[in-house]
Amino acid sequence: MAKDDLSIVLRILDNENKLVERADQKSISMLSILGVFMVFFIAYYRIIPINPLTVTLIVLYFSFALLSIIHLIMAIRPRIRTEREGEDRHLARDPAFFTGITSFPTPSAYKEALEKLIADESQVAEVYIRQIFSVARINQAKYKFVRRGIVLVISTLAVELSIIVYLFIFHMGAGVMPPII
Most Cβ neighbours (<10 Å): which of 2, 8, 39, 88? Predict the structure, then answer.
């Protein structure tokens, strides 16, 4: 494989790895936003009147919040099947990928495998192509959960806003301003 071809493959791998980091950052940010708004909800929880509408909104709120948390955590650590039917099985000891590196019993065994890999240019390309494919599958799963998580966080916040608006309308109708905490 020519150096230009290898640099393109390495650039693709680097881009896929950056996408993994971005998905994790988005998920953590959404979890933080959800946490901040849940604190506001807890502050107003004690002044919510109990009636069929508020019970429905509270059940929706907690359902959306729980689903949001689950999806965002799954985006951080998705469950990926390592092998599909019809795919070739490759050696578990891939000296250029993190799961392969940790499977070597000693540093000298890893060094020998890495030297063998470097000596065969076609094998180097094959290893990096498998890595790109693996990381792309991880990204596919991560971004599926990130998209779902974002929709669920927005739904959670919309329900929370509905509850707060209802509280102000309810308390203003009673002639009492709800406490602002």
Answer: 8
